[in-house]
Design brief:
The chain is an alpha/beta fold. About 35% of the residues lie in helices and about 15% in strands. It binds pyridoxal-5'-phosphate.
Length: about 350
């Protein structure tokens, strides 16, 4: 089976935009050319994001099975459950989302603004649960599935991040195919791809998608680098490896993946999932102030910190051309207004 054989229900505007970030490149020494591919503006549904891309394949399956309610799980400020709820509304389906206490964050509006606010506006059936951060399968999610059945509905089960699911990696395998087409259009080649990784299927899908490429036809080797934002590295690496392997098989990669195709870097995850540190804030400021490109303190600020760190250390060598995959997430920013540098408590620039 190939990727094209898998039914896909279109939810995106089309290929997500790609563009250079010349002022960010310049601010980092001007010797590495940085571009972005923008999943943060990939769809008109609930502000879009990486989950809408993944859901193109999962909802095709849900609709084929005759399911009437999407059931998923995430944290209080989950981008994922916001996108699942938006997609359900777009398709006229019901939606139940379990939202757990993944982040111990002190902003007094943390549980009313941002993603959860948007999910409530879309009429989501939100079930709050106090459990802490874990990307694995949870009993609360199973209970939500059972409750839909007991009410006479037909649920479709979507795990955290739409990742640990047989179709979870397909959306970003398709991202890799799409990027190769955009490279041909723009007559460029990206030797580094940087992506944030937590529940793993954005990163894993790309690994599988790029594994379809004929390495001998590439002008240079291509490295896909996942930047961990989970702060539970082993679980994320495990999940990335499993999903990449199963997705590669599913789309017809005719060889085992090599160990060097699965790279997760650490050092940018901050003290915990959902908690930014000084380098996260610096990265958010740098992209915002050089390019007007906004990122969040949970995910993209951390992968951006990874990109910046690897350019400064020389790990991404001068002469490289990097694609920064922006997966979305800005909707969480209001929930972090109390963090110094992200709201009114500090970080203002002197005139
Ligand atoms: N970036 C954003 C904005 C997200 O919402 C997520 C979701 O978890 C990620 C990155 C990480 O992607 P994944 O869960 O596929 O590893």
């Amino acid at each position: 089976m190939t990727l094209a054989d898998h039914p896909r229900h279109p939810l995106l505007f089309g290929p997500s935009p790609v563009h250079p970030l010349p002022r960010l490149s310049e601010a980092l020494g001007g010797e590495v050319e940085i571009w972005a591919k923008r999943e943060d503006c990939n769809s008109g549904i609930a502000f879009g994001g990486n989950k809408v891309r993944k859901l193109e394949y999962l909802v095709a399956d849900a609709l084929a099975q005759g399911c009437d309610t999407l059931v998923s799980i995430g944290g209080i400020q989950s981008n994922h459950t916001r996108q699942v709820t938006g997609v359900a509304r777009h398709l006229g389906l019901g939606c139940v989302t379990v939202q757990e206490g993944w982040v111990d964050w002190p902003d007094m509006n943390y549980d009313t603004v941002g993603n959860i606010q948007l999910t409530r506006i879309m009429g989501g059936d939100i079930r709050i649960d106090p459990a802490g951060f874990d990307i694995g399968i949870r009993d609360s999610w199973k209970a939500a599935l059972t409750s839909v059945e007991e009410a006479g509905g037909t649920p479709y089960a979507i795990p955290a991040g739409a990742s640990d699911h047989p179709l979870g990696g397909l959306g970003f395998a398709n991202w890799a195919v799409e990027l190769a087409e955009q490279e041909a259009q723009h007559e460029v080649f990206f030797d580094h791809i940087i992506v944030c990784t937590v529940t793993g299927s954005s990163h894993a899908g790309m690994i599988a998608g790029f594994a379809l490429e004929d390495v001998d036809s590439l002008p240079r080797p291509r490295r896909v680098i996942g930047v961990d934002a989970s702060a539970t590295l082993d679980k994320t690496v495990d999940q990335v490896t499993r999903i990449a392997t199963q997705t590669a098989e599913r789309i017809g990669v005719a060889r085992p993946l090599r160990d060097d195709e699965i790279t997760v870097v650490v050092g940018y995850e901050g003290p915990a999932y959902g908690v930014p540190d000084a380098q996260t804030i610096e990265a958010i400021h740098l992209a915002a102030r050089t390019e007007g490109m906004l990122t969040d303190p949970v995910y993209e600020g951390k992968s951006l910190a990874g990109l910046i760190g690897m350019i400064r250390s020389g790990e991404i060598a001068p002469g490289s051309r990097v694609m920064y995959c922006h997966l979305g997430g800005q909707a969480a920013l209001p929930a972090y207004a109390g963090a110094p540098g992200l709201g009114r408590l500090g970080g203002d620039v002197e005139a």
